[in-house]
Amino acid sequence: MLRILSILFVLLGSQVMAQNEQEAVKKTIEDFFEGFHAQDSLLMKHEVSESVILQTIGKDETGNSIVKNQPFNEFLKSIVSIPATTKFKEVITNYSIKVDGPMANAWTDYEFMLNNEFHHCGVNSFQLVKDANKGWQIIYLIDTRRKEDCN
């Protein structure tokens, strides 16, 4: 009986640790978006690695899917330069987070609002690595964007 209780204790302990790591990953993403919405480049930079890669999947003029790269510094400049009269918000509607040791993946459905109106929706795919000093850091972000089939 003691052996069974010991096994259960270990299993429950690892489950709690995994949930704690998932919450830490989620907090990193939430903090990134807090900076995004506040147009705070320092807060956004704090949540990403120095070598972060940003990509988006779009369509070319013939409707074929293409992957577009965006340097992080250009992304920051574009966010910071949005006029104060423009209201924008990316609303995460769902999280699916997987963690394996120092690596995590977060798949987040979202809706993007511009001036309080729906603009587009899509999915973000975040890859994160846990740094011994900085904690969870976003190393890769790719997203999709569409105006239809958002439910």
Automatic annotation (TrEMBL):
The UniProt record lists the keyword Signal: yes
What keywords does the record list, in alphabetical order?
A: Signal
Entries under InterPro entries matching the protein: NTF2-like_dom_sf (IPR032710)
Q: Which residues form the signal peptide?
A: 1-18
The protein's name is Nuclear transport factor 2 family protein
